[in-house]
Amino acid sequence: MKLLIFGATGTVGKQLILQSVAMGHEVTAFARYTEKLNDFGHKNLNIFKGDVLDASAVEKAVKGHDAVFCTLGAGRKGDVRAKGTLNIIRAMEKTGVKRFICQSTLGVGDSKGNLNFFWKYFMFGFFLKEAYRDHELQEKYIAQSNLDWTIVRPGAFTGGNISGNYKHGFSPTEKKLELKISRSDVALFMLMQLTSGEYIRKTPGLSY
Fold first, then answer.
1. In the prediction, which pLDDT does 75 show?
2. How many Å apart are CA 100 and CA 165, to the nearest integer?
3. Where are the alpha helices (DSSP H) in 38-182?
4. Cα 5 from Cα 182, distance rounded (Å)
5. Res 76: pLDDT
6. In this structure, what is the dihedral angle of CA atoms 160, 204, 137, 85, given to the nearest 10 degrees?
7. Contacts of 79 (CB under 8 A, 6+ apart)
8. β-bridge pairing 2-6 and 26-31
């Protein structure tokens, strides 16, 4: 497939690049700072230099792809995720690209019930409050779109190799979770959605 990755220079985005080209997909990595991808030379990898807040650049990049991945990050503050995602959605709707797989975070929406006290009240309630709001708005924009979307809600990122041994799509009341997941397993799960309709227009959680 022809895949486009927004947030390609982030830790999950880089895993998406590595795994998707290994699977034989033709991949375009969208990045503002393309020098961060200098070590990712591959015959099936194209690099598109652009800013996700530039709607015209986003539309140009989206055109002609089979599916779009979004792993945008914005640090603790700002609303780059939401604004950038809205540009992606509009570009996809305009160009007729339907499949959208976006990484959000466990704790948004009904998955807040999966969190423990520390994550619910200290991390998202205080320390990462603005980032949490950015994810909420991002998810709102996606849910309102007419795309074939999947919002993946992973726990806290860890290192580690691909295991494929994780829980997904669990109940919003499930408490027996580590609330952690490796970046490589997040990327694997996102790529698996290309050949599965199980979570279209759904928000599966992801955790060990």
1. 67
2. 24
3. 55-62, 80-95, 117, 129-143
4. 19
5. 55
6. 70
7. 133, 134, 137
8. parallel
